Amino acid sequence: MSHPLREHLEQVVPLTDEEFALVLSQFSCRRFRKHQFLLREGERAPHIYFVVQGLLKLVHTDPAGRAHIVSFALEDWWEGDFAAYLTQTPATLSLQCVEATTVWCLPLAGYQQLCARLPSITYFFMVKFARGGLAAQQRILSLLALPAKERYERLLHQYPTLPQRVSKTQLAAYLGVSRETLSRLAEQRHPRK
User: Fold this and answer.
1) In terms of CATH architecture, what is 4-118?
2) How many other CB atoms are there within 10 angstroms of residue 116's CB atom?
3) 3-class secondary structure for 63-76?
4) Residue ranges per domain, the chain?
5) How far apart are CA 44 and CA 80, in angstroms?
6) Which of 56, 93, 123, 189 meets the CB 3.0–4.6 Å disulfide criterion with 73?
7) Which of 155, 158, 153, 174 is nearest to 98 (CA)?
8) 8 A C-beta contact, residue 58 and residue 163
9) 30-86 per-position pLDDT tens digit
10) pTM of the predicted model, to two decimals?
């Protein structure tokens, strides 16, 4: 029987059974309830997370108390406050379940041990971090340069199921618009008859 983590890793690198056993020995599987936090701002980030089932949101709260959704993590995605995790400094982001979620958790010591022992895993994470960095860069550029309508259209194209899985308030926070603006954009795209 296949393992979701192995299937995911092998999209980038092949693994022998022995190598995968070593990889799996460094992870733990956890289940979280809807609205439960995996990480809160100010805490140490003990893990990065591979999402098997469910949906997470990564959030930054500004000094005025406004929540800004940095990203959503769907199935087959990695998420966490990577800066806090890699530097073992307090998190500047919170990670919360939008739905009941199952994740594979990797502590920093496990990450370091796997990278030291398996060059293929080092390569895997290099690819994943590079893709994540590119995606973050594109998101920043879209927030800086694109009108709300185009950001909304891109989101619908890239993540067609996301609007059915998150509230309009959360979607608006991710797009950097008000809930009213999001409602207007949705109405323009799908006018009522």
Assistant:
1) Sandwich (2.60)
2) 10
3) CCCCEEEEEEECCC
4) 4-118
5) 11
6) 56
7) 174
8) no
9) 999 999 999 999 999 999 999 999 999 999 999 999 889 999 999 999 999 999 999
10) 0.91
Question: CB of 15 within 8 A of CB of 72?
Answer: no
Q: Which two tokens stand for residue 36?
A: 């439960």
Tokens standing for residue 141: 């550029």
CA nearest neighbour of 95 among 43, 52, 138: 43
Rounded Cα gap, residues 40 and 90, in angstroms: 9
For 84, counting Cβ atoms within 10 Å of its Cβ (0-12 exposed, 13-18 middle, 19+ buried), the class is buried
